[in-house]
């Protein structure tokens, strides 16, 4: 149990202290770190909280798509839920859910926008095909991003004329040089290590383009980082460091993945304070459906700067697509993508990348 006092409240003459209860489960199922197996446990906890009348005015979590979806399916959620995670398409368009890490829906919109683009300084062709690589060892975010790319009903799948899933290392490695391949573009998710382990020093056809989704990794912007040779055929989709600046007071000893989730929940607390302050200033009740649906279509001051939520309660931000300069072996920004405006903006006019004439190849 913790108590939070929001300084900005005092500036407006509002004296309020928020009581936060942290519920931790030490069951064998939860300790397995298996998101699927935590689903029933999460529902049981939620029912227990409701039964004992311990539910407050906002729920922080869960982060697991399975749990969040099941909670909305099996319970009547009339209070706001703020999640770091819940990336999957099944958690889209939930009236009281706010997601503070980029959900799969945002990734799909970028990919379709980029595939269709044919008037960029470095891309003259619309793409209509893709391979998607999955090997079953992905992190939580990658699992749901690739799951969305695989789904036949997803926006990405519907907009492509050809899409095939590569499920094993051998299939991936074969496509790199297979003259009978049906697409030159491969989408995958993870860190550069996965590229190195799969590709290594193998030969790659000159028209192959690998899109690596690695949103929550500041490695590419670290000073003096040099891209390995196996990254020259790779474009990296990521978020600039300002989207996940670390907090030294509690980030020491945490993995980058855990730190990103922790930072998102800190922003969740700041979001709750922002909405609560607005309602208290206006003399409005906070235990109403209106309050539960208020955590969307707004901008608030997060830990690292302003955070914008769209009309579905999902975070908006600016993603960047990086390439490896063949001159310097450094990562450089190729373009930026505003998820709020669904707009791609070229940054490099004559990128010094591995493909000929400063242009990306066609996908066929």
TrEMBL record:
Residues annotated as transmembrane: none
Domain Receptor ligand binding region span(s) in chain numbering: 96-320
GO CC annotation: membrane
Assigned keywords, A-Z: Membrane, Receptor, Signal, Transmembrane, Transmembrane helix
Record Gene3D superfamilies: 3.40.50.2300
Coiled-coil residue windows: none
Subcellular localization(s) per the UniProt record: Membrane
The protein's name in its UniProt record: Heat-stable enterotoxin receptor
């Amino acid at each position: 149990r913790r108590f939070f006092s929001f300084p900005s409240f005092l500036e407006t003459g509002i004296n309020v202290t928020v009581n936060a209860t942290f519920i931790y489960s030490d069951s064998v199922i939860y300790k397995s770190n298996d998101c699927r197996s935590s689903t029933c446990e999460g529902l049981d906890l939620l029912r227990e909280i409701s039964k004992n009348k311990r539910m407050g005015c906002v729920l922080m979590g869960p982060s697991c798509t399975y749990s969040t979806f099941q909670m909305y399916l099996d319970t009547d959620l009339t209070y706001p839920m703020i999640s770091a995670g819940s990336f999957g398409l099944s958690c889209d368009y939930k009236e009281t859910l706010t997601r503070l890490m980029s959900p799969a829906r945002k990734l799909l919109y970028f990919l379709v926008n980029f595939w269709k683009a044919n008037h960029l300084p470095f891309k003259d062709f619309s793409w209509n095909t893709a391979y998607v690589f999955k090997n079953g060892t992905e992190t939580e975010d990658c699992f749901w991003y690739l799951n969305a790319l695989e789904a036949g009903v997803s926006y990405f799948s519907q907009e492509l004329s050809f899409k095939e899933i590569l499920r094993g290392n051998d299939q991936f490695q074969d496509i790199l040089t297979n003259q009978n391949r049906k697409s030159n573009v491969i989408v995958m998710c993870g860190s550069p290590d996965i590229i190195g382990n799969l590709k290594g020093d193998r030969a790659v056809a000159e028209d192959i383009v690998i899109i690596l989704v690695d949103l929550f990794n500041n490695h590419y912007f670290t000073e003096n980082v040099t891209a390995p040779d196996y990254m020259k055929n790779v474009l990296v989709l990521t978020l600039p460091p300002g989207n996940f600046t670390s907090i030294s007071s509690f980030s020491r000893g945490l993995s980058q993945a855990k730190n990103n989730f922790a930072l998102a929940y800190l922003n969740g607390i700041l979001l709750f304070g922002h909405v609560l302050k607005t309602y208290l200033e206006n003399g409005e009740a906070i235990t109403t459906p209106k309050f539960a649906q208020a955590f969307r279509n707004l901008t608030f001051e997060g830990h690292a700067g302003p955070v914008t939520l769209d009309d579905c309660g999902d975070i908006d931000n600016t993603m960047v697509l990086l390439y490896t300069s063949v001159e310097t072996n450094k990562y450089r920004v190729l373009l930026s993508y505003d998820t709020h405006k669904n707009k791609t903006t070229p940054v490099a006019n004559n990128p010094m990348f591995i493909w000929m004439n400063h242009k990306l190849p066609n996908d066929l």
